[in-house]
Amino acid sequence: MCRGGVMIDPQHLILIAISAFYSILMGANASYAMAASFGSGAMSKVKILFLLAISLFLGAITGSTSVVETIGGGIFPIPGDLPVVYIILLSALFYVLIGNVLKLPLSSSMITVGAIVGIGLYLGASFSPKLFFIVLS
Prior knowledge:
This protein is 73% helix and 3% strand. It is mainly alpha-helical. It has one domain (2-136). The longest helix has 31 residues, at 45-75.
């Protein structure tokens, strides 16, 4: 697919679609954090959606790079090829989807970190002392 002279690989389009669906699931999962505010009448649905959208956007912009660098390079140096990215995204998406269907409040960030650590262990990445402290927290 060509857009503005730049060729977009179909595999990358699939990854974008999976990521978008995962983002929607994360937003649905974050709704548990706002249930008390809505149930008590302290905030309207529109205000809650706006607050969640801003919070998720700011969190992704400000904190995601350091988390990815710490997990992907500092703890488990895993390759960034497409099959590894597919496994991480799809396994995290699956567990958040199951949690949403069962109406269980889950930490999507912890699930994503778990997917990264899981593929790192599978690929034989060496154990890092940093991982021990992360697990303890």
